[in-house]
Amino acid sequence: MIIMIAAVAENNALGENNKLVWHLPNDFKRFKTLTSGHHIIMGRKTFESFPKPLPNRTHIVISRQKDYHPEGCIVVDSMEKALAICPENENSYIIGGGEIYTLGLPFTDKIEITRVHNSFEADAFFPEIDLEKWEITESEFNKKDEKHLYDYTYQTFFRKIT
Q: Is the pLDDT of residue 75 over 90?
């Protein structure tokens, strides 16, 4: 199954200057739990935003740069090539950024969103989720606290069968 996973603001903001504009430790834990042991697909800028490759995951980086070969990563030049590398009977995750989410949406079966209940200035945005094509199957609200400056909701969407 191809799954998109993202933390997204009310205005679909993802981040600015290749950084998240919020800090939600519980979301990081959820991301780690869901993606560990799986293939993760990302754009070059998203990969470069990490201090080092994420442990216990196969990194597939989409880049148009011909000479781009970060250690420990598989580099391809299209979403189709990235998806072809992923095992057919396992979950694989598309983890960003904005352009990669847009490219990956037509291939996605499930979306895991952490909806951050605020709007932010940003230069990267998640594509609009068309509720004619997607349905929310789970929703879990979380109140802000001393470690989380914003309320947030975990939302699971599945593509509607047509």
A: yes
